[in-house]
């Protein structure tokens, strides 16, 4: 997978047989888009939009073609700029992103959102030359390193096929993150050494906590201005008065998000807290393990474990929620039956209706506070069919909670590495660093971007 040029050839053969096949037109446009052939992509997107369709499923592809054409035009307008100026989250209207993620009819967007400039204007302004595919020695070294690192993201699980493009982009993202984080850590380590020298001068040498300034004191989606000057790269700041280079947790993850947006430009990967006010109604992702009577090959291996977690949560809380979010209390008699349940059908028959329950996790930012983790839902779809899924909601209040956790977790990573352990490669000495990174990753997976991410 990930061979877009080969896919273009195959799709072109299919279109030579049936030139009005909306799926093939849409997919070929997506492939052209991914490899930077924007004129061909826009042409195929337009052809998709011009078709007369006979089903709602095909109409959804037309809606997506509209949004992705706009993204292709936006990307083309940035081709002669530095990569840091490619900023879908900052430049694209929140309403557009909202409708794109939800695959809604673009009529409202057309009326309220400024459209991207036509491709000919971007080509004229940028004076784009033919893409240079020559691989220099420096490029080859970089790509070999990126491919080697990127392969490590591959899931060893049924249903997840290796994708060379995704691997390479993930590797390039990891390298860029390492470059930027190492610069920030050098600055923090210099501060740590300076503070220790000052302390030892007065006989008070000891370990110091390195404080990472928050860039989000105003709550979800807010930032505060300060004397520091914002650079053009991912919102990373550099304090000119102290030559201190600072990164927030969101700066770190924004690098990965941008590479993910480039790796598959037709996936709506955006920061949820930068969507429109519709975000207040909530967003979320779904990981289905059973759909009707079908086992979802990617996620079904988690079925038994999830069923056990659901039973454990019910045992602890003694209630679940129905579709109306009302509490269903679990009696002692029912609880024993639930503990003995082996299947979705068993569990549903005991509760007696569609329901959901929430796992929890402990806060690191606020001692003693519990946060909602994710939700496990069980819905009957037919006489013998069930939808059994893990659903992670995201609302502004939840975003605020996990933003605080991520900030504290990132500070812990920096504190663990930028003191006495700075520069070491000793595996045992880095135990606290590993633990801090795992904690940060744990909270990250309980946050949400748009449905396409993770």
From TrEMBL:
Biased composition of type Low complexity is found at 223-233
- Chain positions covered by the region annotation Disordered: 196-234
Picking any one GO biological process from the record gives: negative regulation of DNA-templated transcription
Q: Which Gene3D superfamilies match?
A: Tetratricopeptide repeat domain (1.25.40.10)
Q: What is this protein called?
A: Uncharacterized protein
């Amino acid at each position: 997978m990930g061979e877009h040029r080969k896919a273009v050839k195959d799709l072109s053969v299919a279109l030579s047989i049936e030139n009005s096949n909306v799926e093939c037109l849409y997919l070929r446009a997506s492939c052209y888009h991914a490899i930077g052939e924007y004129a061909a992509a826009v042409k195929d997107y337009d052809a998709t939009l011009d078709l007369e369709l006979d089903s709602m499923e095909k109409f959804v592809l037309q809606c997506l073609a509209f949004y992705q054409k706009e993204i292709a035009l936006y990307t083309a307008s940035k081709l002669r700029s530095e990569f840091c100026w490619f900023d879908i989250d900052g430049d694209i209207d929140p309403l557009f992103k909202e409708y794109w993620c939800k695959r809604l009819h673009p009529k409202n967007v057309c009326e309220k959102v400024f459209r991207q400039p036509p491709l000919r204007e971007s080509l004229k302004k940028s004076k784009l030359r033919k893409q240079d595919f020559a691989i220099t020695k420096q490029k080859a070294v970089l790509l070999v390193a990126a491919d080697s690192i990127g392969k490590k993201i591959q899931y060893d699980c049924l249903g997840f096929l290796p994708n060379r493009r995704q691997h390479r982009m993930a590797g390039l993202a990891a390298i860029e993150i390492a470059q930027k984080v190492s610069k920030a850590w050098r600055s923090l380590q210099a501060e740590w050494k300076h503070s220790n020298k000052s302390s030892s001068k007065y006989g008070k040498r000891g370990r110091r906590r390195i404080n990472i300034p928050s860039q989000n004191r105003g709550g979800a989606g807010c930032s505060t201005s300060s004397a520091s000057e914002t650079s053009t790269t991912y919102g990373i700041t550099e304090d000119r008065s102290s030559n201190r280079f600072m990164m927030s947790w969101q700066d770190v993850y924004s690098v990965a998000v941008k590479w993910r947006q480039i790796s598959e430009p037709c996936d709506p990967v955006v920061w949820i807290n930068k969507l429109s006010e519709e975000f207040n109604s909530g967003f979320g992702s779904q990981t289905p393990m059973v759909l009707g009577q079908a086992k979802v090959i990617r996620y079904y291996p988690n079925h038994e474990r999830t069923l056990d977690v659901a039973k454990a949560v019910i045992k602890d809380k003694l209630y679940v929620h129905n579709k109306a979010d009302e509490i269903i209390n679990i009696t002692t008699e029912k609880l024993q039956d639930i503990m003995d349940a082996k299947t979705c059908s068993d569990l549903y028959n005991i509760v007696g209706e569609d329901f959901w329950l929430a796992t929890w996790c402990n806060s690191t930012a606020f001692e003693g506070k519990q946060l909602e983790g994710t939700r496990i839902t069980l819905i009957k779809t037919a006489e013998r069919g069930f939808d059994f899924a893990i659903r992670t909601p995201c609302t502004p209040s939840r975003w605020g909670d996990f933003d605080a956790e991520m900030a504290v977790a990132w500070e812990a990573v920096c504190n663990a590495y930028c003191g006495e352990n700075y520069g070491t490669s000793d595996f045992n000495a880095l135990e606290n660093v590993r633990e801090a990174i795992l904690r940060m990753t744990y909270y990250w997976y309980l946050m949400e971007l748009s449905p396409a991410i993770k």
